[in-house]
Write a structure and sequence with these properties.
Distance between the termini: 14 Å
Helix content: 10-25%
CATH topology of the largest domain: Diaminopimelate Epimerase, Chain A, domain 1
Radius of gyration: 18 Å
Strand content: 35-45%
Number of helices: 4
Number of domains: 2
CATH architecture of the largest domain: Roll
């Protein structure tokens, strides 16, 4: 089985073309392939391109725990770069159909910058979803307990669920401490991605990320989008935001209706061939 490996600011994915893998991999095989010691190692598998009646290409995003993600900003940039490397797209905009909605992508001539229109962020409990008492509402600066800590959070979705916790300072150690508890908190029936967010100024935020189904992650496009939208919702940031992560920086443009356009790189690592013995 041949796979192409890319990373987006340290968030690495394997691309499995449907021509090389026409059948969906079992959860057990996904876990083994993504394992850092027993497999090829990655933060997930991008499976496609599929025919789509709604977009130019279809994509499925498989998490390293065998579950499936609705959307991934870094995964979309990587898949867009893969399509260009394969000669399937040029610099003209094109669309990708994901479980989290259709996105439009555009790649610079030298492939150094990839723009993705991520869609509109919603903060409403019925859309994300978030369990609440009574009628649905926007989840803004509400209390939540995780790992014995009392925190306040904003919930958001950009096709996949996010829990954003504003803090005066964010650290990897604290993300590792509270991330698992927040991901699996009873408030989130579909689990959630977690971002600890520090606002630096009107145009910059810093986040630490615990990704649903993957764990601690160096960078995430959808997490950046959700955190940036929360910063705007708080009134703490303007339309142009740079998100700083351990793996690097992503640029965002977020309009007054919380439509997000993301700008960032994707880097090709190489071609990998999986031996069948790995899956025995």
């Amino acid at each position: 089985m041949k796979l192409e490996k890319y990373h987006a600011l340290g968030n690495d994915y394997l691309v499995l073309n449907v021509d090389d893998g026409p059948e969906r991999l079992s959860e057990e095989k996904i876990v083994r392939i993504c394992h850092r010691n027993f497999g090829l190692g990655s933060d997930g598998i991008l499976w496609g391109p599929f025919p789509s009646e709604k977009a130019d290409f279809g994509l499925r995003i498989l998490n390293p725990d065998g579950s499936e993600a609705e959307k991934s900003g870094n995964g979309l940039r990587i898949f867009a770069r893969y399509l260009k490397d394969q000669g399937k797209v040029s610099v003209a905009p094109f669309t990708i159909d994901t479980l989290g909605g259709i996105v439009t992508c555009e790649i610079s001539e030298d492939s150094s910058v990839i723009a993705v229109e991520m869609g509109q962020v919603s903060f409403h409990s019925d859309v994300i979803p978030v369990k609440v008492d009574g009628d649905g509402r926007e989840i803004l600066n509400e209390p939540i307990e995780a790992a014995g800590r009392q925190l306040r959070y904003y919930a958001a979705t950009i096709g996949n669920p996010h829990c954003v916790v504003p803090m005066d300072e964010v650290t990897e150690s604290f993300a590792l401490e509270v991330g698992p508890s927040l991901e699996n908190h009873a408030n989130f029936p579909n689990r959630t991605n977690v971002q600890l967010m520090q606002v630096l100024d009107r145009n910059n935020v810093r986040i630490e990320i615990w990704e649903r189904g993957a764990g601690y992650t160096l960078a995430s496009g959808s997490s950046s989008s959700a955190a940036g939208a929360v910063a705007r919702k708080m009134g703490a940031c303007d339309e142009e935001i740079t998100v700083h992560m351990p793996g690097g920086k992503i640029g965002l443009r977020i309009d007054d209706d919380f439509n997000v356009t993301m700008f960032g790189p994707a880097t090709r690592v190489g071609t990998m061939v999986l031996d069948s013995e790995c899956l025995d």
